[in-house]
Amino acid sequence: MEDFNWDDYFDDFNYSSGLPSIPPDFAPCTLYYIGINIHVVILIYVLVFLLSLLGNSLVMLVILYNRVNCSVTDVYLLNLAMADLLFALTLPIWAASRTNGWTFGTPLCKVTSFLKEVNFYSSILVLACISVDRYLAIVHATRTLTQKRHLVKFVCLGMWGLSLILSLPALLLRKTVYSPNYYPACYEDMGEHTTKWRLVLRVLPQTFGFLLPLLVMLFCYGFTIRTLFNAHMGQKHRAMRVIFAVVLVFLLCWLPYNLVLLADTLMRTGMIEETCERRNDIDHAMEATEILSFLHCCLNPILYAFIGQKFRYGFLKILATYGLVSKEFLAKESKPSYVGSSSGNTSTTL
Q1: Does the predicted model carry a pTM greater than 0.85?
Q2: Per the UniProt record, which residue ranges are transmembrane (predicted)?
């Protein structure tokens, strides 16, 4: 009877690194893996796809329609909506893979994994850029770097370039792996050194693509909040609510996944003891937090709609232009007041 490959079995359950080699006398863990109901997961993916497609398209429409008066922050939020929209387009494929495994071949495996990584890194880098812009505009009251629109374009191009570089391992190394024991899976395969290189490729991007931007945001927003409260800038407090909400939602969606990924890395490197119970707990947590991270791509437009006065006004203005709402109704809506920005005469947020 052919030996059961526990390396492949565990790897088919998640996209983390492979297990160490199993000695011949090793008694494998008895798996009691009970995943989230597959129909519930597929329903979540479809709803997130539809909400993201609609919401992020509207955000891009509102910003581009009012591009003459858009602020530097709006330019960054436009890039954030683009990243979320690109990732949302892959969700139907991820949903379909939940039924019979990855049956779409290696090329689509590479592309969808690449877009997922690009979405993650571009999102946090955009939020880091916004935090620096707000820090310069409010703490130092300067218009030096981002006052000129062409400089902002270069910042955005640099952000996308770095996101693409950090996401290259997914594009180069992901492939469809066929296992005789379970459904085909989409994950990295680097031969005999898969475990070692996965750890390296996990630690480096997480450090430069998550931890450092997170530290930048904490530093910038810490000083920004202190300056706002010390100066009693009531209007700017209100204008910053959208940005703080966007950052908070990003952390709520992505931080749990990264913490589980860190725990998995520590266990695979032997820094914390690996047990059967702990292995199963991390597998459960990996699946649940990955679904939570997918939710992020549809939440920002909801924040703009409920908190962003400028977004609501811009959207109603478009509807009024095409006769979908009356101009009298638009007049009843208070036009958002513009507060200081590093871009000069424009509002700070959506």
Answers
A1: no
A2: 31-64, 76-95, 120-139, 151-173, 208-229, 241-263
